[in-house]
Amino acid sequence: MLSGFYIVGSDEVGVVRLFGKVWQERVEPGLHYRPPFPFTRLDKVKVRQVRRVAVGAELPDILVGRQANPLQGEFLTGDQNIITLRATIHYTVHDPVAFLFSAQDPEGLLRRAAEHVLTKTVAQMPVDEVMTSGKIQVQNRCCTLLQRLLDERERLGVTVVAFTLWMSA
Fold it and tell me: Cβ(53)–Cβ(59) under 8 Å?
């Protein structure tokens, strides 16, 4: 019976499952009790942590033997030029249940959605504008479109904080 006591940290929200179904959606920080282990499971999500995911940049993995794909960061602009871009998306979790259970790999889904939005946005602009005066516009538009896509279609339970775009050499 004592194994049912648990602590949720000040930057976390707990989600308790009873027999696999969500029983308590949002357990606030502090000391709590739940039925012991075989009946329930506790998942803790850091909701105040700003997480990040990179688009267009993949590091090589020596252990697996995977090489970085040099073509991954290439995008086609509206005037039919190829530009190499990298983006970093900063996000927070606002709905822990959706973040935990809406997708098997929420970070991968977020990466693919951001890549889609970036491709769609850059394809409507000339290369000179993307590289100079339109960079801020691309970042803002991508941030807005990504949040809309995540809210309407994916329902990942995340809030996009920033969409940072940078050109690589």
Answer: no
Domain of residue 31, residue span: 2-46
Does residue 7 have a pLDDT over 60? Answer: yes
126 and 69, same structural domain? Answer: yes
The terminus-to-terminus CA distance of the chain in angstroms comes to: 59
Whether 20 and 86 map to the same domain: the answer is no
Q: Are residues 112 and 83 in the same domain?
A: yes
* β-pair partners for 7: 31
Give 152's contacts (C-beta < 8 A, 6+ positions apart).
Answer: none
Q: How confident is the model at residue 161 (pLDDT cuts 50, 70, 90)?
A: very high
Yes or no: say if 58 and 87 are a contact pair by the CB < 8 Å rule. no
